[in-house]
Amino acid sequence: MGRERRPGSVLQYNYIYKQSDIFDSYFWGYLMKRVIILTSILIMLLTGCQQGESPDGANSSQVERPEVEEPRVEEPGSGEFNVTVTPINEVPNYFTPSNWLGDKKLFGISGSRLIIWNRENKQQRILAEDVWTGTISPTGKDVAYVNEQSLYVLDVEGGISISPVDLETKEKSIPVAHPMPYSWSPGGSKLIYAYDYEWSSEFYIYDSQTGTSKPYQFKNQDNFLSYPVGWINNKQLLFLVSSSEPKTGKQEYTESGYRNNLMIGDMAGNLQALTDNQDFNFVLSPYIGDGDNIAYILYNKNNDSKELHLLNPATGVDKVITNKSNLHTAVITANGQYILYHVKSNSADGSGQIYAVDLVSGKQKLVLEVTGSYSDLKMLSHNTKNQVIVTIKDSNDSKYEMKLINLSE
After folding, report:
1. Contact at 8 Å (CB) between 340 and 328?
2. C-alpha to C-alpha distance for 328 and 324, rounded to whole angstroms
3. What is the DSSP letter of 330?
4. Which of 7, 161, 346, 370 is deepest in the core (most CB within 10 A)?
5. Are strands 400-408 and 387-394 parallel, antiparallel or unpaired?
6. Which helix (H) or strand (E) holds 11?
7. CA–CA distance, 75 with 46 (Å, rounded to integer)
């Protein structure tokens, strides 16, 4: 009499496992062969599809960006070019310079006063008080400023002031208080100023030689969230112009527009685009250098990234210098050899750095470490020398620190 195989007994399970082992060995061997064959066929099909077709959504018209090679970073004081940083002492209270006047004098705003300050003998000359903002001509002859009353142009030596508003012949489309002065031409005879509205601006050019103030209107471009960056030369202006329509027609509207671009305008109001940005790409902090180059930061709102660009308006060559998410501003030195850029940490201490890049060698170095929390940092490049003044405002807006950066080979 054979042994009874009761459900759940060890003997029953051993029997079942032995039988299944024989079956499994055959079955899995057969199955694996079929899987290998099918996998090989599938890989060949996929490879063929990828070689013959473009991925969905590819945009062949997109501008090809060069691969960014991060410049070599050197410690302060080392490398192929020399840098010295010198503190500037006994600075007037709340003084931020906006223009060099020779080697010793600086023009800027101190609190609510426009002054010329001699950094050597520490003397200052007050040009106007209770002002909102102001700008001086490259020759130092005229100062444009705005206050509660109006926009004025002051003859620095003669002390006589006029209001370009009184010279206007065209009525404003929208009543506003006062226009804002933006920039003098390199020759110092023309001033562009603007009445800024919510979505657009009305531009005027005051000519001190003819004593006229005439409107400047875009002829071939919508004037939407635009402003004049400055003068390329005596006959061309650089504008930053936003777009109110998306390129694809799919995105939702944003208050800052869909994108903006740098454009050159002639004296007749004809604009030519220097950049062709995709939607949600914005130019920040544009800076006109020695006439051959424009520095700007390109911000991609979709991925929160930033790139520092160097654009030659004559040739159209647009080169990416570096890409850092915490880029703030950049300036170019007088001869166009160096570009300095400011990065600020998002950490609680709010520290920052200024780097310099030799555009000839491509070498980069850290030139200034800004420790502690600060609310603002401005860089002012010398008109003829490789010098930059840095003004640092602390987080309480009560202390202003100034330094002179000198670069040489």
Report:
1. no
2. 9
3. E
4. 370
5. antiparallel
6. helix 10-52
7. 50
